[in-house]
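Key result, reporting period 2: structure in, sequence out.
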């Protein structure tokens, strides 16, 4: 899974490098630079608290994956790889720039990047996994 996480982080960071200073349309998609200083849902506690929240959330998912997921399926591995890479990709931006580079605008009222998309898809996969009936175990 480490290779997948690294690959997805590279995709996110390379896309940010390529598209960050651009402004153009691809059909209904508007590519333009937005500096995102906040977290999801317009939460913004300041740079260091935002980083702390991100690290806490990442720590939770790492803990959950290591301690609670007994025999991960390909779906579960992929979901967690998306979560880890999305969180790390945006964390890199916050640590080096003080904000997250967003550039994809679908005219839905927000602008995002690949790391954000990875996080959303990974969280949906996690929620599907969490809702699946499993054998009862004290570890789950």
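The corresponding designed sequence is given below.
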């Amino acid at each position: 899974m480490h290779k997948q996480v690294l690959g997805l982080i590279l995709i996110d960071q390379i896309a940010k490098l390529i598209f960050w200073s651009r402004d153009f349309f691809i059909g209904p998609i508007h590519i333009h630079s937005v500096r995102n200083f906040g977290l999801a849902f317009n939460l913004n506690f300041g740079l260091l608290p935002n980083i702390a929240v991100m690290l806490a959330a990442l720590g939770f998912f790492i803990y959950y994956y290591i301690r609670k997921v007994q025999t991960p399926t390909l779906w579960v591995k992929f979901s967690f790889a998306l979560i880890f890479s999305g969180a790390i990709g945006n964390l890199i931006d916050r640590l080096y720039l003080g904000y997250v580079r967003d550039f994809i605008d679908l005219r839905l009222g927000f602008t995002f990047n690949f790391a954000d998309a990875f996080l959303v898809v990974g969280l949906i996969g996690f929620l599907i996994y969490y809702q699946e009936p499993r054998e009862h175990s004290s570890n789950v």
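The helical segments are 2-19, 47-68, 74-97, 114-131. Residues 31 and 104 are 5 Å apart (CA to CA). This case is discussed further under Risks and Mitigation.
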